[in-house]
Structure formats: structure tokens, C-alpha cells
Specification:
Layout: H1 2-34, H2 39-66, E1 69-72, H3 78-91, E2 97-101, E3 108-112, E4 118-123, H4 124-129, H5 132-147, H6 150-181, H7 185-228, H8 231-243, H9 279-288
Parallel strand pairs: 2-4
Antiparallel strand pairs: 1-2, 3-4
Protein name: Protease HtpX homolog
Keywords: Cell membrane, Hydrolase, Membrane, Metal-binding, Metalloprotease, Protease, Transmembrane, Transmembrane helix, Zinc
EC number: 3.4.24.-
């Protein structure tokens, strides 16, 4: 378990370093080829940061409302509340706000910017379908997202994605402007290069973001198993979740990465652009933990 946790933490750091290197390289291209100063990079990061900060502080409320999650008290579902409360005591975390989504789909998610401002939501389907140890595994996984500050990691990544998209757009516009001012072969080549960059940069950025997201899922699996000391519980829960073909109707592409499993049930174009690693691979890693 400890080796899995360390490995996933290190891989996340490596991916973020690759991300920073990529945005630095893109900034160098802007500066060298088109005379942009360092302010171009600073401005791109600043705009992305402002846009992301709103999501950081208010995104949890938006996510909960968009999924039609209903806040519950202990008296509304003492079984679920006690499971969450006991695991929070074990993890040394404050008890998050608990929500229920009225859906037969098997899914759950955690949100919030830090342990003191966190919420955890479960579908009625997952509460009914899972045994005690299996539901504990799911709860521990979601609490690990809170404890590992995954929302902060993804905020940093989203800022970088936004900055790359802005810089790529500036690059494209500069190319087209130059190609229109200089109707020659070199201008045409620059225009083509700009078009290729605007197409590839956001895609590369999105793939790195998804890779970071997947590593955080593996990390939450390992951390959750360390919390319950029973990886098999989460492994069996994931098997049941995988076997269910019921999508979560209230989920959207904006909230998909929050859930323990892809809420669209394979409707994504390819695994390459999935917000989650394959469940079979997650189960395999869980059953290799000792």
C-alpha cells in the first residue's frame, strides 16, 4: 500500500513538471518567434487563475446542485452517516457534509477545497447495492481525495491547461496576421505551424490533465485501502460498479472527473480521453496490495 501511494505521488509530480516545461516551451516560442515578452505568459496564467479560482471556491456548490444531490443529517440515514463518521475518526478528518443523489446508478464523489469545506455524495443505487465492507471502501476512497487535497492539485493543472489554450490562441492569431501581412512562402509555413500548434497544444494539455486525474484515482484507491486495511472491499465494490450499466443522468462532462467511476458508462470516445483509469486495472492493483 505504501509503495503504491509513493509511486502515484511521484508520478503526479512528474506529470505536473512536464506540464510546466510544456507551458514554458510554448512561452519561449511566443517570445522568440513573435516578440512577445514574459508578460504574455504571466497574463495567460493570470487569466486562467481568475477563471479557475471561481470554480475552486464555488465549484463544489455547482457540482452538488447540478447532480441534484440532497443534503442529509444523521437521522436521515444513520447507517451511511455512521460509516462516514467512523472512517473520518480513523483518518483524522472532520466529518464532511453528506449528500444523496436519487439515482439507481452506482457512483459517488467528493468535492470541496479542503477538509474543512468538503462534501461527499452517494447515489441511492450504490448504497443499496454494496455490502458494508464494500461501501466502506468507496467512502474511504472519497475521503482520501479530500485528505490528499486532490482538488488543489487539479486546480493547478486546470490553470495550466487554460494558460496553454490562451497562449496557443495568441500564437495562431499572430501567425495568421503575419501570413496576411507577408503573402509569401515563409508566411504560409508560419500559418500552418500556428494551426498545428493551436490544434495540438490544447489536446496535449488535456491529455496531461487526464493523466494527472487518473494518477489521483490510483492514489485515492491506495490511500483508501490503507484507511480501511482491506483493499478487497474496494475491489469488490469496483467490480459491482463496473458490472452496472446504469449511467448517472445528472452527470456532465464538467463533473465527470469527480466520480469514483465514469458516470457515462463507456460513452466517452476512447479510453485515451477518459477521466478515469480502467476499472480492471484499478482492481488488479488493489488485489496486489499487501
Amino acid at each position: 500500500m505504501y509503495s503504491q501511494i509513493d509511486a502515484n505521488k511521484h508520478r503526479t509530480i512528474i506529470l505536473i513538471l512536464i506540464f510546466i516545461s510544456f507551458i514554458t516551451g510554448l512561452g519561449w516560442v511566443l517570445k522568440t518567434w513573435f516578440g512577445y515578452g514574459s508578460e504574455a505568459i504571466v497574463l495567460a496564467v493570470f487569466i486562467s487563475l481568475v477563471m479557475t479560482l471561481f470554480s475552486y471556491y464555488h465549484g463544489d456548490k455547482v457540482a452538488l446542485r447540478s447532480t441534484s444531490a440532497r443534503h442529509i443529517a444523521k437521522k436521515d440515514n444513520p447507517y451511511l452517516y455512521n460509516l462516514v463518521e467512523n472512517l473520518c475518526i480513523t483518518a483524522g478528518l472532520p466529518v464532511p457534509k453528506i449528500y444523496i443523489i436519487n439515482s439507481p446508478a452506482l457512483n459517488a464523489f467528493a468535492t470541496g477545497r479542503d477538509p474543512k469545506h468538503s462534501s461527499i455524495a452517494f447515489t441511492t443505487g450504490i448504497i443499496q447495492a454494496l455490502e458494508n465492507e464494500e461501501l466502506e471502501g468507496v467512502i474511504a476512497h472519497e475521503l482520501s481525495h479530500v485528505k490528499n487535497y486532490d482538488i488543489r492539485v487539479m486546480t493547478i493543472v486546470i490553470v495550466l491547461v487554460g494558460a496553454i489554450s490562451l497562449m496557443a490562441n495568441w500564437f495562431l492569431h499572430s501567425n495568421w496576421r503575419r501570413s496576411s501581412d507577408n503573402d509569401n512562402k515563409s508566411g504560409g509555413i508560419l500559418a500552418i505551424a500556428g494551426l498545428v500548434l493551436i490544434l495540438l497544444s490544447p489536446i496535449i494539455a488535456e491529455l496531461i490533465k487526464l493523466a494527472v486525474s487518473r494518477k489521483r484515482e490510483f492514489l485515492a484507491d491506495a490511500s483508501g485501502s490503507l484507511l480501511t486495511r482491506y483493499p478487497e472491499g474496494l475491489a469488490r465494490a469496483l467490480e459491482k460498479i463496473s458490472a452496472s450499466n446504469q449511467p448517472l443522468e445528472t452527470a456532465s462532462t464538467a463533473t465527470a472527473h469527480l466520480f469514483i467511476s465514469n458516470p457515462f458508462k463507456g460513452k466517452n470516445l476512447t479510453n485515451l480521453f477518459s477521466t478515469h483509469p480502467p476499472i480492471i486495472e484499478r482492481i488488479k492493483q488493489l488485489r496486489e496490495m499487501v
